[in-house]
Amino acid sequence: MSDTITKDASAPAGDNTPKTEPAKQQKPERVASLWSDAVRDLRRNPLFIIGGVLVTCLIVISIVPQWFTDGSPFANGACDLSHSLERPSAEHWFGYDVQGCDNYTRTVWGARNSIIVGILTTTLVTVVGSLLGLLAGWKGGITDSILSRFTEIFFSIPTLLGGMLIMSMLGKGNAYTVSLVMAVLGWPQIFRIMRASVLANKNNDYVMAARALGAGSGRITFRHILPNAIAPVIVVAAISLGVYIGAEAALSYLGIGVQSPEISWGLMISDAQVRFLSAPHVLLFPAAVLSVTVLAFIMLGDAVRDALDPKLR
């Protein structure tokens, strides 16, 4: 009994070469780096997602408060003394303050000054402290000594106490003067962190290789040192943003920060404290929003810290 051999009709006669499948195209391997790993971790971190959503909402509220309330926050606007200290209702969720102004409207508008102070102060502190710390750590020698001694002068001044002293001398303040004062007192912390990070990175192999290839000091500083030294600065800046918002509220509460006719959560809390027993809603709502805001920024900073610190992986 003979076996029947079936050949492919499309194959040429006498061609017994086995067919091979075309090689599958391999996907390029992902290049791992601190920043790419951090972004991937942040996308999966619920703490970052919750904090990011809250912070985004607060920023939008501070930019366009008209989207969230159509009332006037000022006493010469839609305020009516006949509604003074009325409790929350379906029409007015947060009730009225002592001047008969809608408490919800004032709370929404109060976000603007608080967010301005937090973001502006953090930006100034980060830029000034990072540049000076980068210069001191990279140059070393007499430059480092002079900048370090100069920084210690500011470090010896408590931020809140120094802010109270300077603001009391300046007199009437607003969000921008408060930001400037806190930035003057807050940059030494970023300076120290950046300086230490630069000192830890300046003698690494990639810096030696760049120098051996003929790269100049400017290129090495901003293309190699800065990207690898900035991570701890970003972590501290993200956490400090909420702290500066709380500091602004404290200064306004004491009457030396943002002042009337401007609106601030600290001012609202200060005005409501004497009425707390008879109308607790006047104080509780702005205080609760302030607490949520500070907590949101701290949550965001904690998530960034966990993502950028390789030791916590």
Automatic annotation (TrEMBL):
Plastid listed as a keyword: no
Membrane topology field: Multi-pass membrane protein
Xref: Gene3D superfamilies: MetI-like
A family per Pfam: BPD_transp_1
Location of this chain's protein in the cell: Cell membrane
Transmembrane segments: 47-68, 115-138, 150-170, 176-194, 229-247, 283-304
Residue intervals of the ABC transmembrane type-1 domain: 111-301
GO BP annotations, alphabetical order: transmembrane transport
Bias (Basic and acidic residues): 21-30
Keywords annotated in UniProt: Cell membrane, Membrane, Transmembrane, Transmembrane helix, Transport
Top-level taxon in the UniProt lineage: Bacteria
Region (Disordered): 1-30
A GO cellular-component term linked to this record: plasma membrane
Family the entry assigns: Belongs to the binding-protein-dependent transport system permease family.
Protein name: ABC transporter permease
Species this protein is from: Streptomyces kaniharaensis
